[in-house]
Design goal:
By secondary structure, the protein is α+β, with helices and mostly antiparallel strands. It folds into 2 domains: 104 residues, Winged helix-like DNA-binding domain superfamily/Winged helix DNA-binding domain (Arc Repressor Mutant, subunit A); 107 residues, SCP2 sterol-binding domain (Nonspecific Lipid-transfer Protein, Chain A), CATH 3.30.1050.10. Helix content is 38%, strand content 14%. It contains 11 helices and 7 strands. It has a 5-stranded mixed beta sheet with strand order 5-4-3-6-7. A two-stranded antiparallel ribbon has the order 1-2. Strand 4 and strand 5 form a beta hairpin. It is globular. It starts with a helix and ends in a 24-residue tail after the last helix.
Amino acid sequence: MDRMAARSYGQFCPVAVASEVLTQRWTPLVLRELLSGSTHFNQLRRGVPLMSPSLLAQRLRALEEAGVITRCADEGGRHTEYRLTQAGEELRPVIEQIGVWGRRWIQRGIKDEQLDPALLMFDMERRINIEALPAERVVILFVFTDVPEELSRWWLVLEPGQPDVCLSDPGFPMDLKVTTTVRLMTEIWMGEVEFRRALGPDLQVQGPRPLARSLPDWLELSVFAGVEPAAAGPPSPRVRVT
């Protein structure tokens, strides 16, 4: 039996056909990263750090075979880029709606094992309100008190049009220092807690007052921050899928 046949559901239904491509383990998360702007292998890896490089390469090949992505050389010709095709771009509302559904119906609080400082910081980097930034560079050091030392310090370098996150000191003068926990910052990021209301012993911002006051305006929060958990109710009418 060949590889394609082994993962086939053996049905003509479009749901089954699409699932053969989209529902393999890790594939929706790889698509999430591609749709968020990651184009290089190492960029994709940082968004799915628990996924082995070999499995990531395998999933990328499968997506390429399905016509969801295409491989090409970057402008310098030294690295491979993974770009979404039209078929891949059409998955954007699908992946976003999966997240909305998960937030509304499945996620009830954030478990300790789901806390991930790397994903949090990279997500924050991708959701900076560029238009609200000052003209000069701003460097923010985040110190997380509830994770191992090697993951506790992150630098967010904010420059107009070019935010960047670093796990090592980028060498620029620090403008703001935020001391908090990954849990609290994740709850803020997901819209469960308002930044300014959380200021206190568990969230401290040190630095020039004008910058400290503006910090919450620079963070646009998760795309799922506005999704309210659903209240339990009567079952919906049954709809036949054909």
